[in-house]
Write a structure and sequence with these properties.
Radius of gyration: 31 Å
Largest sheet: none
Order of helices and strands: HHHHHHHHHHHHHHHH
Helix content: over 70%
Structural class: mainly alpha
Distance between the termini: 112 Å
Shape: elongated
Oligomer: single chain
Length: 315
Amino acid sequence: MKRLIMTVVALMGATTLFAQTDVVATFQQGVANAKAANYTEAIAQFQEIIDASWDIEEPDANQQKAIVGSKKFIVTCYNKMGVAAVNAKDYEGAINNFTEAANLAELYEDVAAMNKNRALVGQVYQVQGADAFNSEDYATAIEVFSKGYAADPRNTEMALNLAESYFKSDMYKDGMAICTKIAGMNADKFAEAIAAAQEKMHMYTNNEVAKLQMANDYDGIIAMATELEDAAMAAKITLQAYYGKKDFNKMIELSESALAAQTTDEGRSDIYYLLGVAYNEKEQFDNAIAAMKNVTAGANVANAQAVIAALTANE
């Protein structure tokens, strides 16, 4: 027992001795290995310094520089290994190395390096998923793009491809969830992606509405609208559904809140057009004309003008 205790003490002493005397020298060796692209050796040396730093109660200036530098360089080494793996088309290796770099950067509170490496993880997944997406293998594309999106939600190109893969797989709610997140991003930085997401939301929502209309399932459309996060779109398709049900009173009742939910002139014009249609069906022609006069943007302008002309001609 006595001999074992002495061995443990000796090991602890050796660690302390390294911490006190070899940190700077080992750091210099690590830097040299990193510059020579001997990343595995460099990582081992930087990790040795980081581990030993716990035993140094009051590091001097050179030791402190070596400890801080080791935390920076070990992240860089994993990053460089990730780049080398990408060049060799070893995507799994690239993802593992970039992920480790991101995790260590987070541990050492280097936010810029963390974000950079997470973005690189996303880019590798994007490359991997592109082949499946282009081959219309949407199940595989979803699996790959989902991992990339989790790593870097700011990669809007990949996020849009993920949403499209969901839509193509008849996973409407999942596609809408991704598009809604994109639509909520900073408009100054992601205006193009937001516009693309909104276009997808409208197109695929219209497709879903069309399917339900063909089945005369207007209650299904109304139920679907309640689950939409886009209040403007939900209000519009709800009015359309009540038009399908010939419930013109409900359309008129909901028109005020539907108008309030709109954020664009086109959206408000669409609601006014539906309101005008409802009044026309109820033969409240003055109200119909007043509503149609507010249709000033979008695809219904010409139709509204035609309705106004027809109604005023009958006066």
